[in-house]
Structures are given as C-alpha cells and as structure tokens.
Amino acid sequence: MNDLDRLPLGSDRAMALVHLLHHVAAAANAASSLQDVLACVLPGLCTVTGWDLAHVFLVDVANPTRVASVGAWHVRADCESRIAPFIDHAGQITRVDALGFSRRVVETGEVAWCTGADEPGDGERIRLARACGLSAAAAFPIEVGPEVAAVLECFALEPRPRDDDVADVIAQAGTQLGRVIERERSAAALREVARALQREVAQRREAEEVVRSQVDTMSAVAEALASEPRLDAFLAYLLRAIAQQLQAEGAGIWVTQHDGRHVQPAFSYEGGRVLSAVESLHPAMRGPIDLEDESPIVQAVFRCRRPLVHDVATDPLIRPDDRDYLVAQGVTTVLNLPLFMHDRLVGFLTARRTSTLPFTEEHVRVGQALAAHAALAIELTRLAEDTRATAVVQERSRLARDMHDTLAQAFTGLLAQVEAARRNLDDRADVAERLGRAADMAREGLAEARRAVWALQPHMAPEDLSRRIHAAAARVRDESGLDVVIEERGVPAQLPPDVGQAVLRVIQEALTNVQRHAAARQVVVDVRYGDADVRVCVSDDGAGFDTGAAYQGYGMTSMRERVERLGGAFAVESSPQGTAIDAWLPLPPGGAQA
C-alpha cells in the first residue's frame, strides 16, 4: 500500500482509510505532544492518501494573524533534495497572509484543494512550490472548538483531482489532532496557573518578610527612642533605619532651631555610613536653612504639610547646586518627609534613590511612621531641655533660700559677735565669750555649706544601685522563669552618677537580650567593685549568636557606646553553649566614695 492510486476502489480502500483513522486516534491518545503525533501520523497519512509531502502550521492562540511551522514534515524519500527550498521557506513564515492558498483555510475554516500547477494563483510561496515541482495541494483545518488552531498541508508532485473520501478522512484526522492541540493548550494553561500560583506565593512571602522587617524596625526604633537619652545618637540610628527600609541610597535629617525660622542639618546617610553635617558633601548640609528666604522644597513641604516626591531631573523646586550634586551622585528621586508635632514643624527628613523605580505609597507610609518617631524624639528632647532649665532655676532658688536661711544668717551673727568683741577689747572675758560664739557660728555655717555641696554631688548610693540590680533580676525572673543569679563582690561605694547608670543599664539591657533571644535557662550577673574600677559580667547558657555579623542589634550597640563613652572597655564572647558580656568601667581619680 504505497499510494492511494494503487488501492482498489472497493473494500480494501475503505479498510485502509478506517485503518488510518484508528492509527491517528491511537497516536493522538498516546503521544505527549503534537510533534510526536505528527511524526507518527504523517507518514501513514501520506502513504494511505497518496500525498508526497505533508506538514502543519500552528496558529498563534494569542494572535491569530501569526503562524509558525510545527517543524514535523513527511517527504517522499526520492524528492527530499528537490523540495528542500520549499521546506526551508516554510520555516521562515510567521504571518497568515504569507501562507498562500492555505490562508483561506485559516480565514474560513474550510478545506482548500488545488488540483494542478495550472490553477491560478500568485505569491512567493506558490511560485516557489511550482519551482520545486509541486503540482497539487490541499489544506485542511485543524479545529479546537470554533477556531482554526492549525492547518494541515498536503502536496503532490502530480495533479490530483479533489477526492471527497480522502478529504473527509483527513478532516476526521484533523479532529483528532485538534484534541491533541487542545490538550497541549490545557496543559500549558495549567502550567501557567501553577507558575502564577508560585509567583503569588513568592510575592506573599516577600510581602510577609517586608512586613516582618518593618515591624522589627519599628520595634527597634521604639526601643531606641525609649532607651537612648542622646538625641543625636537616636537620630543617626533612625536615619540608617529609614534608608534601609525605603531602599534608599542616601538620606538626611534637619532639625528646626528654637527660633522656628531656621532648620539645622544634623546627619546625612551617604555610601552606607551616617555622617555628621560637617562630614557630608551635600550642599544642603553646609549650614542652617532659612525657611523664609531659602530652600523652595522645604517651604513647599511646610505649606503642603505632607510628604512630597521630587524628580531630580525636572522638579523646579530643586536648587541648581543641589541638583548638580544629586545628578553627580546618580540620584533620580527624592522623598521629603516633614516632621510635625502639634502643628509645629520640628524638622524634616529626606530619602534619595538612584534606582529608576519610584518611591511607592508603601515607602511613603513607612517613612511617615519612622519620621513620627524622629519628631517625637526631637520634641521630647526639647521638653527635657526645658524641664532641665526649669529645674536649674528652681534649684538656684532653693539654694538662694537655703543660703539666706542658713549661711547668710550665720555670717550675720558671726559679724555681730566679732564687732561686739572689737568694741569691748578691754573686757577679755567678754571678748573670749563672743569669739567662742563666733567660732560656733562659723562651724555651723561650714557644716551647712558642706551639706549644701554634698547635696549637689549626684552620687548613686551603693544600696540604691544594688536594689535596682536585684529589681531588674526579679523582673526578668518573674516574666520569663529564668534562673537569674546576682553575685556582688568587693565593697560597694558611692559611684559617680554616669558610672552607676552605665552599670545598671548594661545589666538591664543584657538581661533583656537573654530573655528575648538566648533561649537560656540560667544567667549569672557578676558585679565586682574595686577601688579604681567596676567590672560587670553577664553570662548565660543560651544558644549564642554570630558576633561577627554586621548588625548585632541596637541594644548591643547602645551598651558598647555607653561603656566606651566613659573610657571603659566592652567585650562579647558567644558560642552555641552561651554568651558572656564583659564591661569594665574606670572610676574618676580618687576612686569611689565610701
């Protein structure tokens, strides 16, 4: 059974066609792709139906005006080289209107049959087919539902009249091939759904990580606000946190001065470091900015009372010298965040990005939340300064009253006794008595002076420090069930207030870290009082942490800075068996006061 013309017109021919349909159906059910089906089906289809060449074009489901060769061909063995140019040309066709007579099949869904080379037709593909010796051709739609999903093309070297039986069989074969295409599309759709679900899961996980990072940052900033007494240290810490959360390469913070008219540059985040205004190269960090005469951006922020995003290349509010600096740094976008407290501008923050991606609404919301902490810190510092000033005035008034009531009266009485004795120098007994009274008054005045001076010495009493240490241990013990052991060695003495506060804060922060992070069962606090120094060691049997990590948390940094600010030394050792924090603090000359 080599070609259709050799088949009898009776039952053998009918059986061959039925056989062909069974073969196509079996291949369509078993194959995993359209190419596999065609590689199995096209040779038998050509043999049974008498075509010399067969091939399939697949219509683009997303764009029905475009097609692509499936790449599977069946070519009669003795004419492969002759037809090669035609096959090569088919691989380059991408548009329906370049298909030649097969174009009608895509557009109408009906079978097209060209019986011989003498039939009318034009176009590059038709001319090439004739040049390769192809004479007859037929094109059959392969449908998926109501649409033409592909075109099955058959060619013959000799003219062939239309054969409705063959056309019907190939049409039925096309139905089977259509089911394969439908399966492939369904599988592709399922794969796309799976990929979409994976992307959604990844996006949700990423969003959860972002939210977790934001919550951790907010918590750390709130903790820093509560524990860091120095405004400059807090603002530097906050500026780094804002730059990291907003994925900004640069940032800056300015604080409104007491006159309400000028904003003073505080810190700039550049190149991954927090710089003081003096160290920064940013033109706006050179000195105070006059809100009434300078900086259109600050004026705009003050008027709008909301965050503003500026395009560095086009925004007319950016001053030329600022623009030159920003462009040189590769900055494309600037976000300005005003810091308001009770409708009063207390400062503003900026964040700078070199990325082409703009600041999103989420970035602005996070920036506003962190900026609110900065505004609160500035306001609390000002309130503290006002409170300290009021306390100084009150203390001066108290001292004045005490001096009036004690020292001034003592000196007045002393002068009276000395004057009386001078007027009566001849009466030695009277003079001696008056000088004795004067000496008593001088001693009382000296005692009062010493008491006043001692009252001005803000030493922390040893029993007060010990009580606070035990109270911190009891709190951790009650909250977490940790076994907290306190060991105090040496003779406690009155410590300078900054040293006593440092000892207490290191112990409190270390206990808090153990409680939160160490998963420990026991922690030992060892305090050693010496004549010239105080040493604190807090050790636990917890899980430890990586001491070489770039970021060890605000609490660890705060402890280190507090100790080193007083000329002390701070060390941390950690392993999977536990962590030990060692702080050494020198006492001022003269040592502690007993």
Proportion of residues in extended strands: 15-25%
What is the mean pLDDT? 82
Fraction in helix: 40-55%
Biggest sheet, open or closed, and with what strands and sense? 7 strands, antiparallel
Low-pLDDT stretches are 1-10
The tally of strands reads 17
Descriptive labels:
single chain; 594 residues; alpha+beta; seven-stranded antiparallel β-sheet; five-stranded antiparallel β-sheet; 14 helices
How does this structure look, described?
- Strands 6, 7, 8, 9, 10, 11 and 12 form a seven-stranded antiparallel beta sheet that branches. The protein has a five-stranded antiparallel beta sheet with strand order 2-1-5-4-3.
- Residues 1-10 have low confidence and may be disordered.
- The protein has 594 residues and is α+β, with helices and mostly antiparallel strands.
- The longest helix is centred in the N-terminal third of the chain and has 64 residues, at 164-227.
- The protein starts with 10 loop residues before the first helix and ends in an 8-residue tail after the last strand.
- The relative contact order is 0.05.
- The chain has helices spanning 11-30, 34-49, 80-90, 103-108, 124-131, 164-227, 231-245, 296-304, 320-328, 361-423, 428-455, 462-480, 497-518, 554-565, and strands at residues 53-59, 67-75, 112-114, 136-144, 147-156, 250-256, 262-270, 273-276, 289-290, 308-311, 333-341, 344-353, 483-489, 522-529, 533-540, 569-575, 578-586.
- The chain is elongated, with a radius of gyration of 46 Å.
- α2 (34-49) packs antiparallel against α6.
